[in-house]
Amino acid sequence: MNGTQIVITVLYSAVTLIGIVGLIAVLRTTSRSSRAKGREANIEKLHKGENWWALMSLAIVVVLFVATFFGIPWMNRAQADSTATVRALQFAFIIQPAQIPAGTVDFKVKSDDVSHGFGLYAPDGKLVKQIQIIPDVESTMTVKLDTPGTYKILCLEFCGVGHHNMVGQFEVTK
Amino acid sequence: MSTDAASVRTAAPGTLPYDDSPTLDATNIARTESLVKRYMWTSTLFLVIAGALGLVLRQSQADIVRVDDNLWYALMTAHGLGAFVAWAGFFLMGAMYWILMRLGIPLRTYILAEIAYWTMVLGTLGIVWTTLISGFGASWVALYPLPFHSAGEWSDTATGLFSFAVLLAGVSIITWSLALLVAVTGPAIGSASNNIFYRLLIALGFSKLWPSKFKHTNGRMTPYPVIPITVVAVNMLTMTLPFAVLLVFMIIESIDGSFTTDPQLAKNLLWAFGHPVVYLLLFPCVAALYYFIPRFARRELVSGRIVVVVWAIALVSNSFLWAHHMYLDYPDSGPQQILNFVHEPVTFAIVLASAVSIYALSATILRSDFHWTAASKFLIAGMAGWLTAGFQGVINADIQFDEMLHNTLWIVGHFHHMALLGLGMILMGVFYAVLPMISHRPLYSEKLADIHLWGMLIGGYGWVIAWLIPGLEGAPRRFAILPEEWDFWTQVSIPFIIVMTVAILVGLYNYVRTATNSPWAPDAEPQIS
Question: Which tens digits make up the pLDDT trace of B341-368?
């Protein structure tokens, strides 16, 4: 897994655990033994808590939104060391050049027919980055490729009967 | 989660333990129940078909009996629309008529509900025909211009007919929305003004927010479930239209090939409907929870004015968030980059309605004398699924996370988690609650319902985890044959799918036996008013 995938795993596991524990805790208060202790729900307090909960939720989503500023692909481009062009068509990729020196690369992608996806997989088989390939319109994906080896491209937008066979590759050299 | 035997015993068979439904006209009750029964059983039939198609798809990926590539994609197209719209969406459309009736806001025009029913049935049959017979396999999104680049697998005529069939389903959703809006803005809501916008704001709960300005003549505030029902009706009425325009364009192109559409515009029109349609399921499920959870907890929904605010935010934001499906479309020219950026905070904003609703429902349950039945167990399990799948949704809404997750099996895991283990469980809970009341027969078996519940939980979570983990590693979606490095997870999912399938069959058997059970004794039958 890369750094982003690890962050997603940790973040999702943590919030899910908190959410489930919280829900179970609420449900446990409905058991007869719990109610026998005589603690009634303070409805007025719960009503006030709803406003705080809404504010807290708003704060969390604002933080999440601000945090994304630094990872929006078209707003955070590094200076490219080289450029490669990618033409996609049912059901193949034409990548030029076939050998790219290690460093930051601008992939200029375009489709001849339908929408395709440019899913870039590292030599160890893990997804590095992706972009949608739009018919007749050029898009640019910038990515740093430091590890030499054979990189595989899978089509990550459904494009017809041969979609799963649409595979490309190129070499990253030292 | 154990059954509180004492609370079960103290409730009359089939009744909800706490009910404040106003007295209703017997004709309205009979007519609505008949209509709702039709929606629920027809959609359940579509579940059987769509579920069977899903089984064929996954077993083929596991290489048990491999199906032809285009057949696989055609089945995928039918499965997606069948399960999401023709089962879950259609079921909940009917359920909303019942909830409104129980709240004393019955339909004012049954003709719209009838049109919605028949157009959905015909549309679904058209989808089944064009996919399974004509071989249309461009997936449910039919991403333009793919429907016209079939690589020889289907004809342009099939594309035109498929578009027409989907358009019929769209007409169904629009007429359903109209039927709801006519009801919630009618006399039963007790608006002090006849102005249509005033009545709409009353239905959206503004009388709770601003009581001096928005007044009721009937002394009753807008019931909470009416708020999400109104929001989804407005949203589906407006957001189905852009997609309908695209479908009309595709029908025209299937007849006259010289008529074309800009692919990027087409994709925006698709997702302008394609995301809000998720709320065709979610918002009615929230309305159902607002309706049922207080009744099982034997107290009013613990909620105040903020809930009106977050639903108003949801109403607006739902119309401007579709581009989160297009985060990775960022062509060097044109406005798409700006649109994607603007739609990200709007996407986050819609989380607020879920967050506040989860709080209100949890606060309602807290330290209550909660009534555990088949229905309430499914509703609680559905809430858990909604919560845990909802967290995935927040992650997906983030552009930089989406770069790792878009069009991977994570997304497949996410929407099956949300649609079946969240909203589907709530839907099944609604069926367990409503079926005895509209059939006038007691539930056939609580024990079978427990088997149904635990089978779905064990099978269902194993099933979605086997998508989420490889998806997180980059396993691609919509592949008839997956790269072999992900075969392990496909194999792992099969036993869980078998468990879940058996559980659903047990549930269906329980539903059918309930509908054919002996009627209640007259003195035991639940009273509507």
Answer: 999 999 999 999 999 999 999 999 999 9
> Measured at the alpha carbon of residue A46, what is the angle toward residues A40 and A48, in degrees to the nearest 5?
145
Give me the mean pLDDT over the B91-97 stretch. 98
d(CA B406, CA B324): 10
* Predicted TM-score (pTM) of this structure: 0.94
Neighbours of B258 (CB within 10 A): 6
Q: Per-residue pLDDT tens for B214-246?
A: 999 988 899 999 999 999 999 999 999 999 999
**Domain membership of residue B54 as a residue range:** 28-287
Instruction: Name every chain A residue with its beta carbon within 8 A of the beta carbon of B386.
Output: none
Query: Is any Cβ of chain B less than 8 angstroms from the Cβ of A119?
Result: yes
Please state, in angstroms and rounded to a whole number, the distance separating the CA atoms of residues B162 and B73.
14
User: Residue B325 is encoded by which pair of tokens?
Assistant: 């499906």
Domain count, chain B: 1
Q: Does residue A23 surpass a pLDDT of 60?
A: yes
Q: Compute the distance between CA of residue B234 and CA of residue B226 in angstroms, rounded to an integer.
A: 12
CA separation for the pair B63, B79 (Å, rounded): 19
Q: What is the CATH number of domain A82-173?
A: 2.60.40.420
Q: How many residues does chain A have?
A: 174
Chain A hits for B334, Cβ within 8 Å: 137
Closest partner CB to A4 (pick from B2, B267, B404): B404
Residues of A in contact with B477 (CB under 8 A): 158
**CA of A82 to nearest chain B CA: how many angstroms apart?**
17
- Residue B331 in contact with residue A138, Cβ under 8 Å? yes
Report the alpha-carbon distance of residue A71 to residue B488 in Å, rounded.
Answer: 32
Q: Is B349 on the interface with A (CB under 8 A)?
A: yes
